[in-house]
Amino acid sequence: MKRIGMRSSTRRLAFWTLIALACWSCATTQPSSERTEDTTGAVRDSVSQSRASREGKPLSSPCIVPYYPPPSAMDLCGEPVPLQNREVLERFDKEFTLVVYNHAQVYLWLKRMERYFPWIEEQLRVSGLPDDLKYVAVVESDLLPDACSPKGAAGPWQFMPSTGSAYGLRQQGSCDERYDFERATECAFRFLQDLYRRYRNWTVAIATYNCGDKRIQEQMRALGSADYYQMRLPTETERYIFRILAVKAILGNPAQYGYHLPKGQGYPPLKAQRVNVQLSCPLPMQAVAEASGTTVREIKRLNPAFRADEIPEGSHQVKLPAGSAGDFEKKIDLATRATSEEIPADGRQTDERWRDLKSSGASGNAPRGRDDRGRSARREDRTSKIETTQVKSKSTSKSAAHTVTKGETLSSIAARYKVSAEALKKANKLKSSNVSPGQKLVIP
User: Fold this and answer.
1) From residue 330, how far is each of 272, 300, 432 by CA, in Å?
2) Do residues 340 and 281 lie in contact, with contact meaning Cβ atoms separated by under 8 Å?
3) Which terminus of the chain, N or C, has less C-beta within 10 A?
4) 104 lies in the same domain as 194
5) How far apart are the C-alpha atoms of 414 and 419, rounded to whole Å?
6) Which pLDDT value is given to residue 325?
7) What would the mean pLDDT of 310-334 be, rounded to a whole number?
8) Are residues 246 and 277 in the same domain?
């Protein structure tokens, strides 16, 4: 009986298993018309993708990265690029491919172009220089005024300290005009124009801007010509011209390579006005910001040439937000006179002294009816304290300390403290002239 019951159970299990399989088969089977339609669609998509690929058009499938071929003809400042030479074509293709697929960077360039290119293009037109020179700034600094290289090149046009000084860019103390976009651009155009007069070839002039005269002249003597594309130069310079060409191709026609920046998404030009100031002592950025009704961050953004949180003494042009100049010069004059007369030389940072000054009402906002006799007496008391403090510091301290800020060099620090760079190097046991932001230096 047990055996008969087991057989019956097995049969029932087999029966229901067959029923389940039949139902599953019906649920997953497509009508022949649907299968045909899917197959036809797949073939159609495959054919269209293949045709688009052959024609060099971007493909629509999200699974396939579109292919953009490099331009078949290029020129730089009106000088043709020999792309018929296979090696030259491949060198250009490498840089073009690296740039065209660097989507984030290209979009940042497109945004910054709207801020800086209109002014650069106008200056090039006025100077009678080729429009293509604007792309040099893109490759040099990505259109970032604060750009700084490990080798000491700085600003939007990456001037080295010596070249910047030769073209009139002041580098004194915490003021470095290599970071001033307008001043650096004007000097870069003069420098490039001088190089063109020397070589009578824009491609070679631009390459020289990157690597200097020595290597270029060595190659010209070796080749007997000024053909940049045949020169053996440092790797960076051999790529430099091709990178500029790639940037020109893509930024000159972004839509052709799949880029579209909606209207209003670019960065607007910085609207500012310049005022001249003559300072007898360093002035905190906080004072400048308050006198112009803005923030320290905005003042530093408009004035990247001032590398510290204060404007050093001397004559300067300061950029302020448009419409904020008003009685700025009067306020600053009051602040600087009060700072030099009222604040003791106690070694505190200038911004600390400014805060004390402001709280005491010396910024020109002091309440009326103040006792002038009492103020004079306090000033005399402060004067005696100043003299005591200065004498004490001279007798007890033989050296000062300096913390290196971004953009400073050993030479600029030496000039600030009126010592030689060699003495500064020796006092700090430096093996080279390189210094880094945050580094502590002993001033002999």
Assistant:
1) 19, 21, 45
2) yes
3) N
4) yes
5) 5
6) 79
7) 85
8) no
